[in-house]
Amino acid sequence: MSNRAVLEVIALDAQDAVAARAGGADRLELVADMAADGLTPSRETFAEIRSAVDIPLRVMLRVADGFAAGDVDVLVEKAREMRAEGAEEFVLGFLDAEGHPDLVAVERLVAELNGCRWTFHRAIDRAADRDALRKALADLPGLDTYLTAGAATGVDDGVPTLLAEASRTGMPGYEARILVGGGLRLDHLPQLLAGGIDAVHIGGAARPGGWASPVDEAAVREWRAALDG
Predict the structure, then answer these.
(1) Cα 88 to the center of its chain, rounded Å
(2) Which domains does the chain have, with CATH numbers?
(3) Which of these, 100, 83, 30, 92, lies nearest to 61 by C-alpha position?
(4) Separation CA 211–CA 72 (nearest Å)
(5) Secondary structure element (H or E) that encloses residue 202, with its range
(6) Model confidence pLDDT, tens digit, residues 104-129
(7) What is residue 1's predicted lDDT score, i.e. its pLDDT?
(8) Are 79 and 62 in contact (CB under 8 A)?
(9) What is the CA radius of gyration of the chain?
(10) Cα(159)–Cα(146) distance, rounded to whole angstroms?
């Protein structure tokens, strides 16, 4: 088994996907509309990316900015469409008004995914109680990753939480992998890697020209080299 750390890159289209794959990305998170912090892409975009690259793709299930689920029926239909198109991995995560996991929405989507692997995204960083959230979700089928910065404000403030949670890996509620993203910089990596974290997620860091620019292969390669030491 490879000990290589996982590098996940946000891709908006096939051009992004090809550049990220060439730079050494292990997996892509597929989203649309970063002005709304990432929504579900179209079936056509998924199909184009799936044809362009051979690495795993995690598809965002989200139809509105923020961490409320919104219309769950629409989310379920999006999941059904993506499954029909061949998607096998997903990203989702919703909170209620009190900051607790919205189990009604999450469980309906997980049932639709029927065993597919999925990431609970950065909604955890806005949760009223991270530990309680993890334990509430622990037995849901397919959950294998938490995308988190450790804090709502980003990795700078979240490092202590990330390291503390990494030290609990394998304990109840902490079986899922920690995927660090949200204000992540290259200089964070040594401490995170030393603390046992082995997966990172980049979006803007893969686009030195900003979100209006495509993924830059050289930028991704720099992250790949830093992770590989």
Answers:
(1) 14
(2) 6-228 (3.20.20.380)
(3) 92
(4) 28
(5) strand 199-202
(6) 999 999 999 999 999 999 999 999 99
(7) 37
(8) no
(9) 16
(10) 15
| CA separation for the pair 163, 207 (Å, rounded) | 27
Q: Which residue has the tokens 């893969």?
A: 206
Parallel, antiparallel, or unpaired for β 6-11 and 89-92?
Answer: unpaired
Helices (H), 167-216: 189-194
Instruction: For residue 68, give the nearest of 102, 42, 39 by alpha carbon.
Output: 102
Measured CA distances, 179 to 1, 43, 49, 88, 148 (Å):
19, 25, 22, 18, 6
Compute the Cα dihedral for 60, 63, 65, 71 and give only its sign. Answer: negative
Q: Using an 8 Å Cβ cutoff, are 202 and 179 in contact?
A: no
For the entire predicted model, the pTM comes to 0.97
Average pLDDT, the chain: 96
